[in-house]
Amino acid sequence: MALQGPEELGEQVEEPEDLDDQDASSISPAEEITMPSGPGGDDEPEEALLLPWDRFSAWLHCICVVGFDLELGQAVEVIYPHHSKLSEKEKTSICYLSFPDSNSGCLGDTQFCFRFRQGSNRKSSLGVFLETTDRDAPPCLKREQGHYYGYVYFRQVRDKSLKRGYFQKSLVLISKLPYVTFFHSLLKIMAPEYFEKQEPCLEAACNDMDRWPTPHPGRILTLPIMGVVIKVRIPTSYDKPGTSQLVQSAQSDSQVSIVLPTIHEVDLFRCFYPVFFHIQMLWELVLLGEALVVMAPSPAESSDTVLALVSCISPLRYSSDFRPYFTIHDSEFKEYTTRTQAPPSVILGVTNPFFAKTLQHWPHIIRIGDMKQAGEMAKQMKVKKLKNLKTLDSKPGVYTAYKPYLNRDEDIIKQLQKGVQQKRPSAAQNAILRRYFLELTQSFIIPLERYVASLMPLQKSISPWKSPPQLRAFISQDFMKTLEKAGPQLTSRLKGDWIGLYRNFLKSPNFDGWFRNRRREMTQKLEALHLEALCEEDLQQRVQMHSEVETVDLVLKLKDKLTQAEREQLPVRPGTVAKLRAHIDAVILALPEDLQGILHKPSTP
Amino acid sequence: MALRELKVCLLGDTGVGKSSIVWRFVEDSFDPNINPTIGASFMTKTVQYQNELHKFLIWDTAGQERFRALAPMYYRGSAAAIIVYDITKEESFTTLKNWVKELRQHGPPNIVVAIAGNKCDLSDAREVLEKDAKDYADSIHAIFVETSAKNAININEVFIEISKRIPLAESAGGTSGKAFKLGRQASESRRTCC
Prior knowledge:
The complex is a heterodimer of chains A (605) and B (194).
Chain A: H1 54-59, E1 62-69, E2 73-80, H2 88-97, E3 108-117, H3 127-135, E4 147-158, E5 166-175, H4 180-197, H5 199-209, E6 220-225, E7 228-233, E8 257-259, H6 268-272, H7 279-287, E9 292-295, H8 299-311, E10 321-323, H9 333-337, E11 346-350, H10 354-358, E12 364-367, E13 397-400, H11 410-421, H12 426-453, H13 476-486, H14 498-505, H15 509-536, H16 539-544, H17 548-567, H18 576-589, H19 593-600
Parallel strand pairs in A: 7-8, 9-11, 9-12, 10-11
Antiparallel strand pairs in A: 1-2, 1-5, 3-4, 4-5, 6-7, 12-13
Chain B: E1 2-12, H1 18-27, E2 40-49, E3 52-61, H2 71-75, E4 80-86, H3 90-106, E5 112-118, H4 130-139, E6 143-146, H5 155-165, H6 170-173, H7 179-190
Parallel strand pairs in B: 1-3, 1-4, 4-5, 5-6
Antiparallel strand pairs in B: 2-3
């Protein structure tokens, strides 16, 4: 069952606007012949208004080159485009986070990602436009609000001509978009060329990106970059979860065009392989927003594992902070490692052995060994006691005192183990694991969706002449009562203390984030229904029955409604806004001329 | 009908009219005050050739020297290269010969080469004789045309000639009844520069 809006489950209100042509699963590149051929590739009316660098900014904040200076240490050498703004604090974060910690070898090329807090409140002139493009994205793929992602391509090779004996440099993409797989693929094309050909290369790449269509969910985007065309589709929140979107055509040449089947999914099986006996417990820990730290030998492994953890509760959005790669130089280092308070609800990925000591008091620690020796199967079935974790040399595994609420699903473990023995392809193992997590999360969330949908007031309680009715309050006990008959037992055969899991979840930031999002959607839906009801009324007749003062009041109220509908992009039926506008004009025309002059003035925002 | 993506790059000196040729081909328009290209610009156009659709993925490269080193990204994987010179600038024809050399050394082995002598509307100021260019093109088995992006002369023709010389899709060749065309394709490809 798809996790869609509450409208899906509730019977009180009608279906929202129809969502056809959104279902674009499995489109072969050969089918999209009709793509516009212009330089932008996508000439939506709203996109025609974009200024130079707007399209680039819709994808990236900037590109940084971080190098090593013998006197200064790590330094941002280049920021491109040159007009992009980064505070000193942000630059410092980027410097430290773009290099592996000193003692993790990482010879050759390494890719990883980090996430850091946005230093100053930077208002984008594109704000409203980006919000609209973001509206249809699934919760876990929406643009970040207070954080940036840094996607890193780090190269370290021996070079005797350099004083340090090594060439060490990172090309880093700074973005608010969580499209991990996409940006890593992009860097694979850009970075090796950049290291050879320097700045003209960045200039060309940025110029390419500035002609890209904006990241609009649901469309197939053709993104030319440095001689190659990347084709992607950003999922929408209406997609059936678990369906792959694009299929690579058989005879395509990677020097000509590349089709990315996903923009954000990481290989869950590969990431969880070292700890895969504990996947279900890890799912609980992430769901409940427990403080978690991943100790890994390299930033690539730490960031992959943290991203896998965060995505294992998809389509739920992980609402707390997470840092795929976190260092002792991080501006939040003190805040997150203090012993004076309980560890915060965050997931950190670290490589510096110093953390084994600093975070010793953390309740849940995942230790990942060198994944290169992954040929050997993780043997430790048992969860390790925390007191056994002292040094970096501790064995891989999960160190925690946590007792899972749900009984362990032995079937999935057996299925995956069998896959390993039979040498099942990693992609297939990943698909199995992904589906397992998806079903588990959906079984968990459906009762909540159903209950929240029941908080929606009845359609008949919406009156055009009263303010829209309020959503009823979420009452935990009431929700718990629904579990008896309509709990997860309907969709999951897993036994255990589901009630306990829900009780804890309701206290977690993930519930808070999820519920806030739902409430906003439902409130907007109510506003939209109210607006539609208003538009159906015979306003002329009403105006005749009321005084001038009341009519003026009505005009002002209608104008407010109009502004709101436009600003919040209320999900109204097509034509409603135009209808409202016509109503306003008609009512104004019925007033004396002196008032008409005043009311016709466009309202200033 | 099968759709094939064909990567095509345009190479040549700065200001010879590469972008104008592409604009004329894709948009059928001409702007005398076009800005110099940065890196490369990308456009597509799909045309029908026999019973195939050829979708040209056109990379129109910058002619400026500082972008010179980026060229391999654009000719890598290209099915065809259009090398453009300006018939009113002898020097641009010399640059063209260097591009041919570079493609021969580093380009894809079967790349179809087309030579376009642009700005043929300015024949009063001509510096490169049509015959000289034609002889050179023949010597390297390249397509040759004089073009004018401004007056829309021979622009579509360049791409039609390219379509003609593109070998048929290999994957279809073995199973379908197109075997007789494969023979021709072999001789065609020998006529390209490399």
